[in-house]
Design a protein that fits this description.
With 396 residues, the protein is mainly α. 78% of the residues lie in helices and 5% in strands. A three-stranded antiparallel sheet has the order 2-1-3. The longest helix has 58 residues, at 138-195.
Protein backbone atom coordinates (compact mmCIF):
# COMPACT_ATOMS: atom_id res chain seq x y z
CA UNK A 1 0.00 0.00 0.00
CA UNK A 2 1.09 3.55 -0.71
CA UNK A 3 1.03 6.12 2.09
CA UNK A 4 1.42 9.90 1.95
CA UNK A 5 3.19 11.45 4.92
CA UNK A 6 3.91 14.93 6.18
CA UNK A 7 7.08 14.83 8.23
CA UNK A 8 9.81 16.95 9.73
CA UNK A 9 13.46 16.31 10.44
CA UNK A 10 15.38 18.10 13.19
CA UNK A 11 16.37 21.61 12.12
CA UNK A 12 14.52 21.45 8.80
CA UNK A 13 11.20 22.49 7.27
CA UNK A 14 8.08 20.33 6.92
CA UNK A 15 7.97 18.26 3.73
CA UNK A 16 5.80 15.56 2.13
CA UNK A 17 6.82 12.13 0.94
CA UNK A 18 5.30 8.85 -0.24
CA UNK A 19 6.20 5.41 1.13
CA UNK A 20 5.28 1.88 0.05
CA UNK A 21 4.48 -0.19 3.14
CA UNK A 22 2.47 -3.21 4.29
CA UNK A 23 0.36 -1.09 6.65
CA UNK A 24 0.33 2.24 8.47
CA UNK A 25 2.57 0.97 11.29
CA UNK A 26 5.16 -0.20 8.77
CA UNK A 27 5.11 3.19 7.02
CA UNK A 28 5.63 4.98 10.36
CA UNK A 29 8.50 2.64 11.23
CA UNK A 30 10.20 3.28 7.86
CA UNK A 31 9.89 7.04 8.35
CA UNK A 32 11.30 6.87 11.88
CA UNK A 33 14.25 4.82 10.66
CA UNK A 34 15.09 7.79 8.39
CA UNK A 35 15.05 10.15 11.37
CA UNK A 36 11.67 11.70 10.56
CA UNK A 37 8.94 12.85 12.93
CA UNK A 38 5.47 12.10 11.49
CA UNK A 39 2.94 14.95 11.47
CA UNK A 40 0.25 13.34 9.32
CA UNK A 41 -0.25 10.12 7.39
CA UNK A 42 -2.93 8.86 5.02
CA UNK A 43 -3.41 5.95 2.67
CA UNK A 44 -3.18 6.70 -1.03
CA UNK A 45 -4.98 4.93 -3.87
CA UNK A 46 -2.47 2.31 -5.05
CA UNK A 47 -3.35 2.44 -8.76
CA UNK A 48 -3.34 6.22 -8.95
CA UNK A 49 -0.16 6.34 -6.89
CA UNK A 50 1.55 3.93 -9.25
CA UNK A 51 0.59 5.96 -12.29
CA UNK A 52 1.71 9.14 -10.59
CA UNK A 53 5.10 7.67 -9.74
CA UNK A 54 5.59 6.38 -13.26
CA UNK A 55 4.94 9.82 -14.76
CA UNK A 56 7.05 11.86 -12.38
CA UNK A 57 10.01 9.59 -11.65
CA UNK A 58 13.15 11.69 -11.49
CA UNK A 59 15.99 10.43 -13.76
CA UNK A 60 18.49 10.26 -10.92
CA UNK A 61 21.17 8.25 -12.76
CA UNK A 62 21.06 10.51 -15.82
CA UNK A 63 21.09 13.57 -13.55
CA UNK A 64 24.19 12.25 -11.76
CA UNK A 65 26.02 11.47 -15.01
CA UNK A 66 25.26 14.88 -16.52
CA UNK A 67 26.15 16.73 -13.31
CA UNK A 68 29.42 14.79 -13.09
CA UNK A 69 30.29 15.68 -16.70
CA UNK A 70 29.63 19.39 -16.12
CA UNK A 71 31.64 19.45 -12.88
CA UNK A 72 34.56 17.69 -14.56
CA UNK A 73 34.34 20.29 -17.37
CA UNK A 74 35.09 23.02 -14.83
CA UNK A 75 31.64 24.46 -14.11
CA UNK A 76 30.66 25.29 -10.55
CA UNK A 77 27.86 23.39 -8.84
CA UNK A 78 25.36 26.24 -9.25
CA UNK A 79 26.26 26.72 -12.92
CA UNK A 80 25.92 22.98 -13.53
CA UNK A 81 22.44 22.77 -11.98
CA UNK A 82 21.37 25.88 -13.92
CA UNK A 83 22.58 24.33 -17.18
CA UNK A 84 20.71 21.11 -16.46
CA UNK A 85 17.52 23.04 -15.64
CA UNK A 86 17.73 25.10 -18.84
CA UNK A 87 18.12 22.10 -21.14
CA UNK A 88 15.50 19.94 -19.36
CA UNK A 89 12.32 19.35 -21.39
CA UNK A 90 10.18 17.64 -18.74
CA UNK A 91 8.33 20.35 -16.72
CA UNK A 92 8.29 18.41 -13.41
CA UNK A 93 12.01 17.59 -13.60
CA UNK A 94 12.84 21.17 -14.59
CA UNK A 95 10.85 22.50 -11.62
CA UNK A 96 12.75 20.19 -9.25
CA UNK A 97 16.12 21.35 -10.63
CA UNK A 98 15.16 25.02 -10.30
CA UNK A 99 14.09 24.48 -6.69
CA UNK A 100 17.40 22.76 -5.96
CA UNK A 101 19.22 25.69 -7.52
CA UNK A 102 17.20 28.14 -5.44
CA UNK A 103 18.32 26.35 -2.27
CA UNK A 104 21.94 26.57 -3.43
CA UNK A 105 21.57 30.32 -4.00
CA UNK A 106 20.34 30.60 -0.40
CA UNK A 107 23.64 29.12 0.74
CA UNK A 108 22.28 25.68 1.54
CA UNK A 109 24.45 22.61 0.83
CA UNK A 110 23.45 20.32 -2.03
CA UNK A 111 22.52 17.49 0.37
CA UNK A 112 19.99 19.77 2.09
CA UNK A 113 18.48 20.77 -1.27
CA UNK A 114 18.18 17.13 -2.38
CA UNK A 115 16.72 16.12 0.96
CA UNK A 116 13.66 18.28 0.29
CA UNK A 117 12.64 15.82 -2.46
CA UNK A 118 12.60 12.39 -0.76
CA UNK A 119 10.41 10.93 -3.51
CA UNK A 120 13.12 11.77 -6.09
CA UNK A 121 16.37 11.29 -4.16
CA UNK A 122 16.63 8.23 -1.88
CA UNK A 123 18.27 8.42 1.52
CA UNK A 124 21.35 6.60 0.20
CA UNK A 125 21.91 9.22 -2.48
CA UNK A 126 21.54 12.11 -0.05
CA UNK A 127 23.91 10.42 2.41
CA UNK A 128 26.51 9.93 -0.33
CA UNK A 129 26.34 13.60 -1.29
CA UNK A 130 26.45 14.70 2.37
CA UNK A 131 29.57 12.61 2.99
CA UNK A 132 31.25 14.13 -0.09
CA UNK A 133 30.59 17.64 1.24
CA UNK A 134 32.85 16.85 4.20
CA UNK A 135 35.70 15.82 1.90
CA UNK A 136 34.98 18.35 -0.86
CA UNK A 137 34.97 15.70 -3.58
CA UNK A 138 31.46 15.61 -5.05
CA UNK A 139 32.68 14.22 -8.38
CA UNK A 140 34.05 11.08 -6.72
CA UNK A 141 30.78 10.57 -4.82
CA UNK A 142 28.74 10.91 -8.02
CA UNK A 143 31.07 8.51 -9.82
CA UNK A 144 30.60 5.94 -7.06
CA UNK A 145 26.83 6.28 -7.14
CA UNK A 146 26.63 6.02 -10.94
CA UNK A 147 28.85 2.91 -10.86
CA UNK A 148 26.73 1.47 -8.04
CA UNK A 149 23.49 2.07 -9.94
CA UNK A 150 24.89 0.61 -13.15
CA UNK A 151 26.00 -2.54 -11.31
CA UNK A 152 22.58 -2.90 -9.67
CA UNK A 153 20.84 -2.41 -13.02
CA UNK A 154 23.17 -4.93 -14.66
CA UNK A 155 22.19 -7.68 -12.22
CA UNK A 156 18.50 -6.83 -12.57
CA UNK A 157 18.73 -6.86 -16.39
CA UNK A 158 20.40 -10.29 -16.39
CA UNK A 159 17.56 -11.74 -14.35
CA UNK A 160 14.90 -10.06 -16.50
CA UNK A 161 16.53 -11.11 -19.80
CA UNK A 162 16.76 -14.71 -18.57
CA UNK A 163 13.02 -14.73 -17.85
CA UNK A 164 11.88 -13.24 -21.18
CA UNK A 165 12.21 -16.42 -23.27
CA UNK A 166 10.36 -18.68 -20.78
CA UNK A 167 7.57 -16.09 -20.57
CA UNK A 168 7.32 -16.01 -24.38
CA UNK A 169 7.16 -19.81 -24.44
CA UNK A 170 4.43 -19.83 -21.80
CA UNK A 171 2.45 -17.17 -23.66
CA UNK A 172 2.74 -18.89 -27.04
CA UNK A 173 1.97 -22.31 -25.56
CA UNK A 174 -0.99 -20.94 -23.63
CA UNK A 175 -2.43 -19.22 -26.72
CA UNK A 176 -2.07 -22.36 -28.85
CA UNK A 177 -3.70 -24.46 -26.13
CA UNK A 178 -6.58 -22.00 -25.79
CA UNK A 179 -7.04 -21.97 -29.58
CA UNK A 180 -7.17 -25.75 -29.71
CA UNK A 181 -9.56 -26.14 -26.76
CA UNK A 182 -11.69 -23.08 -27.51
CA UNK A 183 -12.01 -23.35 -31.31
CA UNK A 184 -10.74 -26.63 -32.77
CA UNK A 185 -12.07 -29.04 -30.12
CA UNK A 186 -15.66 -27.68 -30.32
CA UNK A 187 -15.57 -28.24 -34.10
CA UNK A 188 -14.47 -31.84 -33.61
CA UNK A 189 -17.10 -32.37 -30.92
CA UNK A 190 -19.81 -31.40 -33.43
CA UNK A 191 -18.47 -33.93 -35.95
CA UNK A 192 -18.31 -36.75 -33.41
CA UNK A 193 -21.75 -35.84 -32.09
CA UNK A 194 -23.21 -36.21 -35.58
CA UNK A 195 -21.39 -39.53 -36.06
CA UNK A 196 -23.03 -40.87 -32.88
CA UNK A 197 -19.99 -43.04 -32.13
CA UNK A 198 -18.90 -43.81 -28.58
CA UNK A 199 -15.63 -42.11 -27.78
CA UNK A 200 -12.82 -43.20 -25.47
CA UNK A 201 -13.06 -41.74 -21.96
CA UNK A 202 -10.38 -39.05 -22.26
CA UNK A 203 -11.49 -38.03 -25.74
CA UNK A 204 -15.08 -37.78 -24.46
CA UNK A 205 -13.95 -35.57 -21.56
CA UNK A 206 -12.04 -33.34 -23.97
CA UNK A 207 -15.06 -33.04 -26.26
CA UNK A 208 -17.30 -32.20 -23.30
CA UNK A 209 -14.86 -29.44 -22.37
CA UNK A 210 -15.01 -28.18 -25.95
CA UNK A 211 -18.83 -28.22 -25.92
CA UNK A 212 -18.85 -26.31 -22.60
CA UNK A 213 -16.57 -23.68 -24.09
CA UNK A 214 -18.75 -23.45 -27.20
CA UNK A 215 -21.95 -22.99 -25.22
CA UNK A 216 -20.63 -20.84 -22.35
CA UNK A 217 -17.45 -19.39 -23.84
CA UNK A 218 -18.18 -15.76 -22.93
CA UNK A 219 -19.08 -16.55 -19.32
CA UNK A 220 -16.02 -18.77 -18.87
CA UNK A 221 -13.74 -16.14 -20.45
CA UNK A 222 -15.08 -13.33 -18.26
CA UNK A 223 -14.78 -15.53 -15.15
CA UNK A 224 -11.18 -16.51 -15.95
CA UNK A 225 -10.27 -12.89 -16.73
CA UNK A 226 -11.80 -11.74 -13.43
CA UNK A 227 -9.91 -14.46 -11.55
CA UNK A 228 -6.66 -13.48 -13.26
CA UNK A 229 -7.12 -9.80 -12.43
CA UNK A 230 -8.02 -10.71 -8.85
CA UNK A 231 -4.93 -12.90 -8.50
CA UNK A 232 -2.67 -10.19 -9.94
CA UNK A 233 -4.16 -7.56 -7.64
CA UNK A 234 -3.82 -9.83 -4.62
CA UNK A 235 -0.23 -10.73 -5.50
CA UNK A 236 0.78 -7.06 -5.76
CA UNK A 237 -0.36 -6.20 -2.22
CA UNK A 238 2.70 -5.70 0.05
CA UNK A 239 1.44 -8.09 2.74
CA UNK A 240 0.71 -10.82 0.16
CA UNK A 241 4.05 -10.19 -1.54
CA UNK A 242 5.83 -10.74 1.74
CA UNK A 243 3.86 -13.95 2.33
CA UNK A 244 4.75 -15.25 -1.14
CA UNK A 245 8.40 -14.33 -0.65
CA UNK A 246 8.47 -16.17 2.67
CA UNK A 247 7.08 -19.27 0.96
CA UNK A 248 9.64 -19.03 -1.86
CA UNK A 249 12.43 -18.55 0.68
CA UNK A 250 11.39 -21.84 2.26
CA UNK A 251 12.26 -23.67 -0.98
CA UNK A 252 15.91 -24.68 -0.36
CA UNK A 253 17.32 -24.02 -3.86
CA UNK A 254 15.50 -20.73 -4.48
CA UNK A 255 15.67 -19.48 -0.90
CA UNK A 256 19.46 -19.80 -0.79
CA UNK A 257 19.89 -17.98 -4.10
CA UNK A 258 17.52 -15.20 -3.08
CA UNK A 259 19.48 -14.71 0.13
CA UNK A 260 22.74 -14.47 -1.82
CA UNK A 261 21.16 -11.91 -4.18
CA UNK A 262 19.91 -9.81 -1.25
CA UNK A 263 23.26 -10.02 0.56
CA UNK A 264 25.14 -8.96 -2.59
CA UNK A 265 22.85 -5.95 -2.92
CA UNK A 266 23.31 -5.17 0.79
CA UNK A 267 27.12 -5.36 0.67
CA UNK A 268 27.35 -3.30 -2.50
CA UNK A 269 25.28 -0.50 -0.96
CA UNK A 270 27.12 -0.71 2.36
CA UNK A 271 30.48 -0.63 0.57
CA UNK A 272 29.52 2.47 -1.40
CA UNK A 273 28.51 4.29 1.79
CA UNK A 274 31.69 3.27 3.64
CA UNK A 275 33.88 4.40 0.75
CA UNK A 276 32.05 7.72 0.85
CA UNK A 277 32.96 8.21 4.51
CA UNK A 278 29.70 7.19 6.21
CA UNK A 279 30.25 5.57 9.66
CA UNK A 280 29.57 1.83 9.78
CA UNK A 281 26.64 2.01 12.23
CA UNK A 282 24.92 4.76 10.23
CA UNK A 283 25.56 2.94 6.96
CA UNK A 284 24.09 -0.34 8.26
CA UNK A 285 20.98 1.50 9.52
CA UNK A 286 20.50 3.16 6.12
CA UNK A 287 20.80 -0.10 4.20
CA UNK A 288 18.40 -2.03 6.45
CA UNK A 289 15.37 -1.04 4.35
CA UNK A 290 16.92 -2.71 1.29
CA UNK A 291 16.63 -6.14 2.90
CA UNK A 292 13.45 -8.23 3.14
CA UNK A 293 11.80 -8.47 6.54
CA UNK A 294 13.20 -11.99 7.02
CA UNK A 295 16.76 -10.58 7.10
CA UNK A 296 16.15 -7.29 8.90
CA UNK A 297 15.92 -8.96 12.31
CA UNK A 298 19.28 -10.67 11.75
CA UNK A 299 20.81 -7.37 10.61
CA UNK A 300 19.51 -5.54 13.68
CA UNK A 301 21.06 -8.22 15.90
CA UNK A 302 24.36 -7.87 14.02
CA UNK A 303 24.21 -4.09 14.42
CA UNK A 304 23.67 -4.48 18.17
CA UNK A 305 26.76 -6.71 18.33
CA UNK A 306 28.81 -4.12 16.42
CA UNK A 307 27.76 -1.44 18.89
CA UNK A 308 28.87 -3.70 21.71
CA UNK A 309 32.38 -3.80 20.22
CA UNK A 310 32.31 -6.94 18.10
CA UNK A 311 34.09 -6.72 14.75
CA UNK A 312 32.02 -6.45 11.58
CA UNK A 313 33.09 -9.87 10.30
CA UNK A 314 32.28 -11.59 13.60
CA UNK A 315 28.93 -9.83 14.00
CA UNK A 316 27.80 -10.61 10.44
CA UNK A 317 28.92 -14.24 10.66
CA UNK A 318 27.33 -14.78 14.08
CA UNK A 319 23.93 -13.61 12.82
CA UNK A 320 24.04 -15.41 9.41
CA UNK A 321 24.51 -12.25 7.35
CA UNK A 322 27.44 -13.66 5.36
CA UNK A 323 28.48 -16.56 3.20
CA UNK A 324 31.75 -18.51 3.73
CA UNK A 325 33.47 -16.42 1.04
CA UNK A 326 32.07 -13.15 2.39
CA UNK A 327 33.26 -13.95 5.92
CA UNK A 328 36.85 -14.43 4.76
CA UNK A 329 36.80 -11.29 2.65
CA UNK A 330 35.42 -9.24 5.56
CA UNK A 331 38.31 -10.42 7.74
CA UNK A 332 40.76 -9.36 5.02
CA UNK A 333 39.02 -6.00 4.74
CA UNK A 334 39.36 -5.40 8.47
CA UNK A 335 43.07 -6.24 8.39
CA UNK A 336 43.78 -4.06 5.36
CA UNK A 337 41.57 -1.17 6.44
CA UNK A 338 39.74 -1.24 3.10
CA UNK A 339 36.37 -2.50 4.30
CA UNK A 340 34.32 -0.51 1.76
CA UNK A 341 36.33 -1.79 -1.19
CA UNK A 342 36.20 -5.36 0.14
CA UNK A 343 32.40 -5.23 0.50
CA UNK A 344 32.16 -4.13 -3.11
CA UNK A 345 34.28 -7.13 -4.09
CA UNK A 346 31.99 -9.42 -2.10
CA UNK A 347 29.02 -8.07 -4.09
CA UNK A 348 30.85 -8.56 -7.41
CA UNK A 349 31.76 -12.16 -6.49
CA UNK A 350 28.18 -13.07 -5.56
CA UNK A 351 26.72 -11.22 -8.56
CA UNK A 352 28.90 -13.35 -10.84
CA UNK A 353 27.81 -16.45 -8.93
CA UNK A 354 24.16 -15.46 -9.39
CA UNK A 355 24.70 -14.81 -13.10
CA UNK A 356 26.18 -18.30 -13.54
CA UNK A 357 23.28 -19.87 -11.65
CA UNK A 358 20.67 -17.94 -13.67
CA UNK A 359 22.35 -19.02 -16.91
CA UNK A 360 22.47 -22.66 -15.76
CA UNK A 361 18.86 -22.59 -14.60
CA UNK A 362 17.61 -21.01 -17.83
CA UNK A 363 19.46 -23.60 -19.94
CA UNK A 364 17.84 -26.38 -17.92
CA UNK A 365 14.38 -24.83 -17.53
CA UNK A 366 13.78 -23.72 -21.13
CA UNK A 367 14.01 -27.23 -22.71
CA UNK A 368 11.89 -28.67 -19.90
CA UNK A 369 9.28 -25.97 -20.45
CA UNK A 370 9.26 -26.60 -24.21
CA UNK A 371 8.85 -30.32 -23.58
CA UNK A 372 5.92 -29.76 -21.18
CA UNK A 373 4.16 -27.36 -23.56
CA UNK A 374 4.74 -29.73 -26.50
CA UNK A 375 3.40 -32.65 -24.44
CA UNK A 376 0.21 -30.76 -23.51
CA UNK A 377 -0.47 -29.71 -27.09
CA UNK A 378 0.40 -33.20 -28.36
CA UNK A 379 -1.99 -34.87 -25.92
CA UNK A 380 -4.83 -32.54 -26.98
CA UNK A 381 -4.20 -33.28 -30.68
CA UNK A 382 -3.96 -37.04 -30.12
CA UNK A 383 -7.19 -37.08 -28.08
CA UNK A 384 -8.95 -35.14 -30.85
CA UNK A 385 -7.81 -37.54 -33.59
CA UNK A 386 -7.89 -40.77 -31.60
CA UNK A 387 -11.51 -41.63 -32.57
CA UNK A 388 -10.57 -41.08 -36.23
CA UNK A 389 -7.63 -43.48 -35.83
CA UNK A 390 -10.01 -46.06 -34.30
CA UNK A 391 -12.51 -45.56 -37.13
CA UNK A 392 -9.76 -46.01 -39.74
CA UNK A 393 -8.62 -49.19 -37.99
CA UNK A 394 -12.14 -50.63 -37.96
CA UNK A 395 -12.57 -49.92 -41.68
CA UNK A 396 -9.37 -51.79 -42.47
Amino acid sequence: MLFELKAIRAGEDIFALSLEAADEADAIQQAKSQGLAILAIKKKNALLGWKFQRRTRFPITLFSQELLALLDAGLSLVESIEALAEKEQHPATQKTLRQINASLYEGRPLSYALQQFPSHFPVLYVATVRASEKTGNLSLALTRYVTYQQQMDSVRKKIISASIYPLLLLTAGGLVTLFLIGYVVPKFSLVYEQMGKDLPLFSRLLMQLGQALRENGLIIFVTLAALLVGLLYTATRPANKQWLLRKVWQIPAFGNRMKIYQLARFYRTLGMLLQGGTPIVTAVQMTADLLPSSLRGQLNSALASIREGLSISQAMERHSMTTPVASRMLVVGERSGKMGEMMDRIAVFHDEEMARWVEWFSKLFEPLLMAVIGLIIGVIVVLMYFPIFELAGSIQ
